[in-house]
Amino acid sequence: MMEIISSKHWIEWLLIIAKFAFAFVPVLFILLMIPMERRGAGFIQDREGPNRSYIKIPYFGKIRLFGWVQNFCDGIKLFFKEIYAPAGVNKVLFALAPAIPFMVVLISPCVIPWFAPMAFTFGDQVIRVSGATVDTEVGVLLLFGLASLSAYGAVLAGWASKSKFSLLGSLRTTAMTISYEVCLGISIMGVILLAGSFNLDSIISWQESHVWGIVAQPVAFFCFLIASIAETGRAPFDVAEGDPELVAGFHTEYGAMHFGMFYMGEYGHIAVNGLLISCLFLGGYSIPFVSETTLHANLGIALAAACGVAVLAALVFLHMIYRYSRWLRTSALSTKNEVLREYSLYKILAWASIPVLAVLGIVCALYIHPEFSIVNGTPVFGLGVALGTALIEVIVLLIKTVFFCCIWIWVRWTLPRFRYDHVMHLGWKVILNIALINLVVTALIAKLAGGN
Amino acid sequence: MVRVIRHKPMNWVERLYIFEAFRGLFTTLKHFLRGFFRYETLPTVPYPDMKPEIRRTYRAKHRLMLRPDGTPRCVACFMCATACPAHCIYIEPAQSEDGRIEKRALRFDIDHLTCVFCGLCVEACPVDAIRMDTCETSYVHRNRDDFVAYLYDLTTWNPKSYPQNDLQSQAAPGGSRNKQALEAWGMKVQ
To answer: Which chain B residue lies closest to A320 (C-alpha atoms)?
Structure first.
């Protein structure tokens, strides 16, 4: 026991333990995605979406946070509802089933590399920490294995709730998950072939040194995107819970927080898939045209640039707020004074954040001059530089993931749902074949071009 | 006349689905961006905070027009009650105090739960006493009896909330043409 502990430096242990906090990133994405989805759906359908729930604070009145508060209202409502099970259900499995998708959401991002492997000097030692919580050679396979466990949640829910609708829904989930797992696996084989590794870190570093996966493997990207949308079981592939024919599919009999767990599990699954797809096809944590050594050497400039982007975002936000409130003042809205009072809070916050970020950026640019020592011919920087770089890389990865989450929402509210046999047709006869052909062609080209 | 609509068969690009899917995605993207960056141009109205614009020609809640001295213009001729397909108008006549006019309405009740808002009463009225141009479309009450509008409810409207070119409304007490109208009617100027 002591040998294991003393085999690593204490700072290394600290970082390894701190990395467990990344398990909660998909859970935070749930908080982000639910309002994004509901308001986004509203805008796509030319309506406003939920924007009426508010928190009342002293001077500024009703703070609605652009519909964000709706999240907490829904959460509180689901939390305090009675947990109800119909007669004749298998009590244990019925209670266990909703926990499985949610548990999978917490576990499966363990192989996602959040930042490039750190190497820094601490004292007189060189310490190396990997970006993923679990640094394993079978990264993608482990993630697929864990992610397909979430089908068990649906299957057990359908089996335990003693309802024909649930059972049919869970049967469909099983069939669809299995068929699209195959497409998912085959379509990433091209990328894995090029990178020569299952480890997500190696795949990303291959993309850094060559091109992004989306450029090298565009066909695989589309196959993977469609297959993973199908795997999360959302429209247009929501046959598992298709409300026109199956009431609500496998969670027909569920209510309160049991239903909430399924709901959050679904959104968490989207976040995990978004993380995976941005790692495989969009270069993960890497910034285009900026290598990691450049980032290390110019950390101050990079942080300043990040602050600059944040300032720009704040200015855009302010512009939108001012433009809308100018219209609001002349509108016939009876609550306009209330809304303008609410917006004054956002204006104050945004205006306050701009000088803070600007000063922070200037200080970063002027005073951060990374010092390095040469170890084995490569420059190695200190702990601060490593953490700063990791911060930037995590932000980059999260931005890419948010982009993919938007695509999920966008596709859901655009395309009409497929019939069940169409889903199977698309999976087995179209996507699988395209992915296989793509794999063969990639393998041929890679062999002829003398790759690995 | 029968109009035959022939559906064009899909060409092979459309049958591939993927390109049409992208077109659909582009359409929804346009709508999303409109909502996101031009929130105020959304066609929906945040209802209780902002009332939709209702034209004067819309058949809304009734009102009874007033003479320049403030008495209802109704002569209790029962034309509206007879024309009403829903039988929602109840009129009780009485002798008019003005010698020039035979009858007046002692009671004039309209049950808005029974009313079908067809506007036949407005068409039937020979003296333009009943109108449906109040633009009031939502009635919320706690019990059924409150939905019945009595003579008092029908005659208490403010001429200031009606347009200036609505001369009949402006002739009522408080209206901009009240003084002129009183003179024209040969009534006492108060």
So the answer is: B37
Give the mutation candidate from B17, B28, B38 for the A interface (greatest A CB count, under 10 A).
B28
pLDDT, position A451: 57
The ipTM estimated for the assembled molecules is 0.86
Cβ of A297 under 8 Å from any chain B Cβ?
no
CB contact under 8 A, A46 and B39: no
Taking the CA of residue A47 and the nearest CA in chain B, the distance in Å comes to 6
pLDDT for res A232: 85
Residue A45 near chain B (CB below 8 Å)? yes
Phi (first) and psi of residue B16, to 5 degrees? -70, -20
Q: How many CA atoms lie within 13 A of A380 on its CB side?
A: 18
Nearest by Cα to A306 from A361, A383, A368, A386:
A361
Positions of chain B with pLDDT lower than 70, given as ranges:
187-190
- How many CA atoms, within 13 angstroms, populate the side-chain half-sphere of residue A370? 27
| Kind plus residue range of the DSSP H or E element containing B103 | strand B103-111
Band the pLDDT of A435: cuts 50, 70, 90: very high
Structure tokens given for A187? 């379509």
Query: Which tokens in the block code for residue A150?
Result: 């979430």
pTM of the model: 0.82
Burial class of residue A273 (count of CB atoms within 10 Å of its CB; 0-12, 13-18, 19+)? buried
Cα of first residue to Cα of last residue in chain A, in angstroms, is 40
> Which residues in B lie closer than 8 A to residue A44 (C-beta atoms)?
28, 31-32, 35
Q: Give bridge partners of residue A126 from the DSSP assignment.
A: A121
Q: Which residues contact B79 (CB under 8 A, 6 or more apart)?
A: B124, B125, B126
State the residue for tokens 């006019």. Answer: B101
Contacts of A45 in chain B (CB under 8 A): 31
Q: Does B34 touch chain A if contact means CB atoms closer than 8 Å? A: yes
Judging contacts by C-beta atoms under 8 Å, the chain B residues touching residue A324 are: 39-40
